[in-house]
Design goal:
The protein is mainly alpha-helical. The protein folds into two domains: 166 residues, no CATH class; 146 residues, no CATH class. Helix content is 77%, strand content 3%. Strands 1-2-3 form a three-stranded antiparallel beta sheet. β1 and β2 form a beta hairpin. The longest helix is centred in the first third of the chain and has 37 residues. It is flat and about 55 Å long. The protein starts with a helix and ends with a helix.
Length: 313
């Protein structure tokens, strides 16, 4: 297929997907307004609903087009990566605008559960786009970008408040470092899942389908450990800042988060040492990566769910 024909097919597919996603967005917007009216909570300004909705739409559109591109690997669609990344950048800009207004409040930073989740998704999308400019990791967006769209909808549907005062800049830094580490290690976890699928197909001697369009296993593993190395460094800084700026990091309401975060840090640290010292790779690397990320999810968002949604703290 020529590049011109691929471009024409790309725009036709984009239009169909856009119409489908726009219809879903209108339905979700109606649910958001209806939920707010039924619960008696304040409805977000229409501008925020529009900005958030368009951002979610663009994320979903990009994820869908990346999936189509992957299914048509070997055709002219391969040359459309810059166009897809441009759509993702537009979604990121709108998402950033929405979170800027939602998180930065006069009293400090509102890092309630769904704001924090949406911020982690935003940072993950940023890491993905930046990495995709130099490495072949854009296919991770097939799963991660629609997830970012879901976090926007959740933040609009269920506004929550957990304000960190401006009088505690050290705590703000600790939280932001934690979310940055989480977002990068989330990319690593997604890469590990993709690597597991690729590894299984190759071991079963079934390298067909989308598997043949992925980079070689050696490249996929190198990308995985680059992500883990960056995430581990950020997680180390987050833990250090927690010990420095928090009054009692092992207080009753913090102990589970602290212990699980240290456990995740230890898992990723052991994995990096194992890679450097013993050449760990394949299933061993995948298992350790997913185990460490599971501990990290429980440490941060598991703790926030319990404290904010169950205990209302």
């Amino acid at each position: 297929m020529s590049q011109a024909a691929a471009g024409s097919e790309f725009y036709e597919a984009s239009e169909r997907l856009y119409v489908s996603v726009l219809s879903e967005f209108r339905a979700v917007a109606a649910r958001i307004v209806g939920h707010a009216e039924a619960s008696g909570t304040a409805v977000y300004p229409m501008q925020n609903l529009i900005v958030g909705g368009v951002s979610a739409l663009l994320y979903t559109l990009t994820g869908g087009l990346l999936a189509l591109r992957l299914s048509k690997e070997g055709t002219g669609w391969s040359a459309l990566k810059p166009a897809l990344l441009t759509i993702a950048v537009a979604a990121i800009v709108l998402h950033s605008t929405l979170l800027y207004q939602a998180i930065l409040v006069p009293e400090g930073m509102n890092l309630g559960l769904f704001n924090a989740l949406s911020l982690a998704a935003l940072l993950g999308a940023m890491w993905l786009v930046i990495s995709s400019m130099v490495e072949p990791v854009e296919n991770l967006g097939i799963a991660l970008l629609p997830i970012a769209a879901v976090t926007i909808v959740l933040a609009l549907l269920f506004p929550s408040e957990h304000v960190v005062p401006h009088t505690q800049p050290g705590l703000e830094s600790h939280i932001l470092l934690s979310i940055m580490a989480y977002s990068l290690l989330a990319l690593a976890a997604a890469q590990a899942v993709l690597l597991a699928i690729q590894n299984r197909h190759l071991h079963n001697r079934q390298p067909g389908g989308f598997i043949k369009s992925l980079p070689p296993l050696v490249t996929m593993e190198a990308l995985l450990f680059q992500m883990i190395g960056g995430g581990f460094a950020l997680l180390s800084l987050a833990l250090i800042s927690g010990f420095v700026f928090l009054d009692d990091i092992f207080a009753q309401h913090m102990v589970h988060k602290t212990v699980l975060s240290i456990a995740a840090w230890a898992v990723f640290g052991i994995l990096l040492v194992g890679r450097w010292r013993y050449g760990w790779r394949g299933r061993t690397a995948i298992r350790w990566t997913l185990s460490g990320f599971t501990a990290l999810v429980l440490a941060y968002f598991g703790t926030k769910v319990v404290l904010e949604l169950i205990l209302n703290r």
